[in-house]
Design goal:
membrane; transmembrane helix; single chain; alpha+beta; transmembrane; rod-shaped; Beta-Lactamase; 2 domains; 62% helix; 13% strand; five-stranded antiparallel beta sheet
Amino acid sequence: MRVVALAALVAAALALWGAVDLRHRMADLRAARFLNTAQNLKVTLEAGMTLGLALEQLPRVQEMLEREQGATPATLSIEVFDPQGRVLFGTDRSFLGDLVEERWLDLAAASGGGPWRSGDGAVGVPLVNGFGVTVGHVAVRYVASDPGSVPAFDRSTLAVLGGGVALFALMLAVVFEWCFGRLGRDLREARAVVERRGAEPQSPLALLAADAVARVGAGHRAIDEALAEARRIDHDA
């Protein structure tokens, strides 16, 4: 039963791990989708800076960001900010001139000049001018989970799933015990009876009977041997 319960727990745990892993993969795919949006904006903005304009001097950036946000309903906002974190352009005009989250600056610095991603639904890429200098970043905020895809696995959800896994394993173990436990007990009891009878000492009467049977058998063999010898002698004569 222990082996069956352990196997059931392992199988259920693997199923739970697969569900969580699927959730992570879906989150990665969703982040990659909006990172592609940021990369497209990066190409356009950097192309404008090759003409010698500074990032904050580029024309029609505000309209471009708002148009890009409208094309994807799951996009919450798009911000273009300088190396100090000051918002230069953004779909939410109330953010203009404000500082972005300090965590974004830390992620951007840790990325080593590459794309970066926060765990709460934001991705960004650096903006590099024609001289190879990073003059800012473009960041895209998005809805981190898609209601139509895989549900989020927070602590409460994982607790419910874990309880379901344990209950499933327990039920499976009970079924196997009910089906095969009685058979196993009967076999063990039968073997114990056989071993117990083989280990019991024989009574004196049983020993005498066994000895008498052995003596009668020996007498019969002696008579048979004598008759065989007499026939041989008679045949030789």
